[in-house]
Amino acid sequence: MPCLASVRSCLIPSFSMISRSFLQLPLLLALHFFLGICSLPDTIFRSAVDTALADSGCSGLENDALRLSCFANKALVNVGGDLSKMVPGRVSTEVDARLAYDTHGIIRKVHDLLKLYNEIDVPHERLLFKIPSTWQGIEASRLLESEGIQTHLTFVYSFAQAAAAAQAGASVIQIFVGRLRDWSRNHSDDPEIEAALKRGEDPGLALATKAYNYIHKYGYKSKLMAAAVRNKQDLFSLLGVDYIIAPLKVLQSLKESITTPDEKYSFVQRLSSHSAVAYSFSEEEVWFISIFLFLSF
């Protein structure tokens, strides 16, 4: 099933030291995945897409934009429904990124998608809705979570965003470790990145570690997802994190890894609720985040 191979979050490795980071990992259903499905002539999801495109309710809409949106929503939900029958855990459906700065638009879109999922009998407990972590997106997450709708906040590139997402009650908070590393190579004017580099730390790993410890030290319900993991060293550094998305080649490279516990990169759990309790945030960080979030909301 080539289309499933591109959904890296489906992979649940057999390595006992890291299995807890992958168990029940949400399967991500995004627009690029949908477009990939359409390019495969023999995909098992073809009927789900064809059924959506044949929907008379969508075809009857006079406005081109509304008709296209209707078809896209139906196709995403039909494929999501099929995936929910194939994998354990939850299916995360991406909300249109063009709504990133529209709190009420995001909420309306999630309600529309949830209604369609209800029509095909996918329980809301199996669903996440992936939302960009703009301030409008974080506020939408807060309001949706208050309704019992699980949200998945993505594009988190700063500790302020991560802390705000946790305080909003987001079910999953996703940090792109590798993308932040890429950004840091060409941008030297970000104080958070500069501070990590001065400590000799990778900015992406540093943010993921700090966000995980913040969430678990202060008892927020959120789970941290580390994505854009580029190599096995990243995996070793994040062992214990709630969720990890990693390419198959990185997971396979672990089979060849022979390490001892005293090595820098080894099968030793780095993150846990116990280590989070011991993690120290400076008074300045706590004060800054409190004031920043107060002013933002």
From TrEMBL:
It holds the Pfam family TAL_FSA. Gene3D superfamilies: Aldolase class I. The keyword tRNA-binding does not apply. Signal peptide: none annotated. Keywords: Cytoplasm, Schiff base. One of its GO terms (biological process) is carbohydrate metabolic process. It comes from the Eukaryota. This is TRANSALDOLASE. It comes from Salix koriyanagi.
